[in-house]
Amino acid sequence: MGCLKILNREEEEKYSWSPDSLKDVQVAQEKFNQYLKQGFIACKIVHQGKTGVQIAEFDPEAEEIFMLALADGG
Questions:
Q1: Which of 68, 23, 22, 66 minimizes the C-alpha distance to 46?
Q2: pLDDT digits (tens, 9 = 90+) for 23-37
Q3: What is the pTM of this model?
Q4: At 36, which CATH number?
Q5: Which residues pair with 7 in a beta bridge?
Q6: Does 22 fall in a domain?
Q7: Helix-strand-coil percent breakdown of the chain, rounded to 5?
Q8: If you compute the radius of gyration of the chain from its CA atoms, what whole number of angstroms results?
Q9: Residue 13 belongs to what H/E stretch?
């Protein structure tokens, strides 16, 4: 089971999918692509939650993907 978490300021969205369910994977992939186009960065969590790796494509085999909005300003 995979989980896509989208962190946008104070809001958080979650989408879960089973790699065996084409419909679930498509919904999560569409959300992933939607937020990626809006400038979010995506990280796949690996090594039992100890490491995050930035990704540019949806991975239906990932257990957990976080998407973060980039902060405005400097």
A1: 66
A2: 999 999 999 999 999
A3: 0.85
A4: 3.10.20
A5: 12, 68
A6: yes
A7: 20, 40, 40
A8: 12
A9: strand 11-17
